[in-house]
């Protein structure tokens, strides 16, 4: 449903992405991993149409994306960032905002929002103002706001990295269950291999703006890889996810 061929991205003199070939099938959960500054967020921005590549081809839903992305295609994606970007209104209003913009009838908005508040365990916070939420609650609201739109592709850029360990773990488990039951298609950027192991089918390792390896988390960890990938994966090999 989403493919990127030979993507290059340069800002000024800095080459950020080089020769990226990426594909995402319906229902697939793909993780982008790699050292700091390797281009993970940049690739996510290009795949989610927030930035345009310097060269290369992108196809989404069978259509070539060049120039301005049509609104009907843009509305098929949702993005969740590390810092939940919430409006300073109630949690309910935050989650309802995207549906209102899309002209969804009021009678439909109420049950859809309530359903997602409930699934993310924040129904009791619906009247609370966004600024009064804890980090974990705010990220739950931010995820509910994305899921309520029923996007064709969900992009998650380090959604847990601002959270403390227990908050992160409980949200990761809830998100894993929601991704599984909704068969969502998603791309996740994370530094934490536990997120990748728990939430994705395939991990793409970026090093210096290039794809250095890809495969299931198990394949990556248990089959020989190029030296730069092995070096990067070493930390994760020595910190396995508890079973
Ligand atoms: N708009 C921009 N203009 C110039 N340089 C940029 C821009 N965006 C990103 N970069 C640079 O491109 C490189 C890749 O950045 P990016 O944020 O994509 O990496 P990352 O893998 O997501 O890093 P991290 O793990 O630290 O979040 C970095 O050196 C960054 O400074």
Please describe the topology of this protein.
Elements: E1 2-11, E2 14-24, E3 29-33, H1 40-47, E4 55-60, E5 63-65, H2 71-74, E6 77-80, H3 91-101, H4 106-119, H5 135-147, E7 153-157, H6 165-182, E8 186-189, H7 193-199, E9 202-207, E10 210-215, H8 217-222, H9 227-237
Parallel strand pairs: 3-8, 3-9, 6-7, 7-8
Antiparallel strand pairs: 1-2, 1-4, 4-5, 9-10
Helix pairs in contact: 3-4, 3-5, 4-5
| E-strand count | 10
Bound molecules: adenosine-5'-triphosphate
Regions with pLDDT < 50 over 5+ consecutive residues? none
Question: CATH homologous superfamily, by name?
Answer: P-loop containing nucleotide triphosphate hydrolases
Distance between the termini: 33 Å
Helix content: 25-40%
CATH class categorisation: Alpha Beta
Structural class: alpha/beta
Q: Strand order across the biggest sheet?
A: 6-7-8-3-9-10
CATH topology: Rossmann fold
Please identify, by name, the CATH architecture.
Answer: 3-Layer(aba) Sandwich
Keywords: ATP-binding, Nucleotide-binding, Transport
GO molecular function: ATP binding; ATP hydrolysis activity
Protein name: ABC transporter
Q: Which key features would you list for this structure?
A:
alpha/beta; binds adenosine-5'-triphosphate; four-stranded antiparallel β-sheet; 243 residues; 38% helix; 10 strands
């Amino acid at each position: 449903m989403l493919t990127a061929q030979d993507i290059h991205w340069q800002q000024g003199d800095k080459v950020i992405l080089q020769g990226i070939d990426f594909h995402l099938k319906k229902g697939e959960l793909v993780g982008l991993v790699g050292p700091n500054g390797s281009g993970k967020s940049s690739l996510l921005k290009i795949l989610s149409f927030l930035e345009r590549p310097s060269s290369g081809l992108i196809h989404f839903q069978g259509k070539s994306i060049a120039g301005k992305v049509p609104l009907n295609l843009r509305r098929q994606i949702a993005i969740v960032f590390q810092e939940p970007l919430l409006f300073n209104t109630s949690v309910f209003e935050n989650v309802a905002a995207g549906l209102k913009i899309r002209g969804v009838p009021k009678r439909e908005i109420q049950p859809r929002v309530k359903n997602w508040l409930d699934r993310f365990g924040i129904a009791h916070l619906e009247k609370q103002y966004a600024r009064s939420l804890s980090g974990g609650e705010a990220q739950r609201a931010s995820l509910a706001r994305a899921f309520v739109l029923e996007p064709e592709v969900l992009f998650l850029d380090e959604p847990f990295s601002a959270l403390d360990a227990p908050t992160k773990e409980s949200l990761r488990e809830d998100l894993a269950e929601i991704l599984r039951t909704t068969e969502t298609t998603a791309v996740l950027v994370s530094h934490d291999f536990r997120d990748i192991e728990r939430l994705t089918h395939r991990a793409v390792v970026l090093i210096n703006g290039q794809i250095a390896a890809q495969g299931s988390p198990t394949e990556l960890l248990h089959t020989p890889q190029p030296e730069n990938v092995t070096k990067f994966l070493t930390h994760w090999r020595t910190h396995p996810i508890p079973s």
